Each structure stands twice: as structure tokens, then as C-alpha cells.
């Protein structure tokens, strides 16, 4: 098989793995007041949000399309068809945000 053929094969996530696409590229960001914060600025441990694009068959709490909170330092990056993704285990996720949680008793009442 040629390399181009491998690039077109379908991908299935295994076990408890979750594949996410980050909301924004790492680098400069803005504060709530609009101040530009450079990528080199020292920040404490900061969690990030991402969108779930694929899940393994043993994943129980997240679905494709959910937004999840994760620690960007505990991640493995992979590029698929020119798009960068983050691969992690379900247990490494800190929170899930989804429309299906509206009106449930176990949600915090906070909204994105």
C-alpha cells in the first residue's frame, strides 16, 4: 500500500480513549478585559476546553459533540489528515458540558 492509501483509512478509537479538537491554538490569548496575554507568560495550571470528535467503545460519560475540560499538560497530540487532535483517556477528563444535561439534578447550574 502506498502512503496515500494509508491516509484514507477509517479510524476507530479503542477502549476508553477520547479524541478531541481543541477550541483554540495555544499561544496568545486575551483576558476577560481584553488584555493580550503572550504565550510566554507564566500561568499556573490552566485547564482547557475541547470538542469530542471520537470515542472508544468503553467510554461511558461523553459523546461525540460534547465539550470537555482537560489538563493540556496530560495529553498526547496526533495529526490526522492535517488537523491536530488531542488523544486522552476518559478518566483524564475533568468535566463534560452538553445540552443533554439541561434540567438534570446532577448539573452545577453553571453555563458556558
Strand order of the largest sheet: 6-7-1-4-5-8
Mean pLDDT: 78
Q: Report the sheet with the most strands, covering strand number, pairing sense and barrel closure.
A: 6 strands, antiparallel
Q: Give the CA-based shape.
A: globular
Low-confidence residue ranges: none
Helix content: under 10%
Instruction: Classify the fold: give the CATH topology.
Output: 10 Kd Chaperonin, Protein Cpn10, Chain O
Family: Belongs to the GroES chaperonin family.
Protein name: 10 kDa chaperonin
Subunit structure: Heptamer of 7 subunits arranged in a ring.
InterPro entries: Chaperonin_GroES, Chaperonin_GroES_sf, GroES-like_sf
What does this structure look like?
The chain contains 1 helix and 8 strands. With 112 residues, it is mainly beta. It has one domain (3-99): 10 Kd Chaperonin, Protein Cpn10, Chain O. The strands form 2 sheets. It has a 6-stranded antiparallel β-sheet with strand order 6-7-1-4-5-8, with no helix packed on it. The protein has a two-stranded antiparallel sheet with strand order 2-3. The radius of gyration is 16 Å and the shape is globular. The mean pLDDT is 78.
Spell out the key features of this protein:
single chain, 112 residues, mainly beta, 10 Kd Chaperonin, Protein Cpn10, Chain O, 8 strands, 4% helix, 35% strand, globular
Amino acid at each position: 500500500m502506498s502512503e496515500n492509501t494509508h491516509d484514507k483509512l477509517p479510524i476507530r478509537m479503542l477502549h476508553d480513549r477520547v479524541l478531541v479538537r481543541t477550541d483554540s491554538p495555544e499561544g496568545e490569548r486575551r483576558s476577560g478585559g481584553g488584555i493580550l496575554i503572550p504565550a510566554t507568560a507564566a500561568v499556573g495550571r490552566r485547564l482547557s476546553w475541547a470538542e469530542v470528535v471520537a470515542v472508544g467503545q468503553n467510554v461511558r460519560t461523553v459523546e461525540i459533540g460534547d465539550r470537555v475540560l482537560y489538563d493540556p499538560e496530560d495529553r498526547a497530540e496526533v495529526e490526522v489528515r492535517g488537523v491536530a487532535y488531542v488523544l486522552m483517556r476518559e478518566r483524564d477528563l475533568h468535566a463534560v458540558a452538553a445540552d443533554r444535561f439541561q434540567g438534570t439534578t446532577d448539573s452545577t447550574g453553571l453555563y458556558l
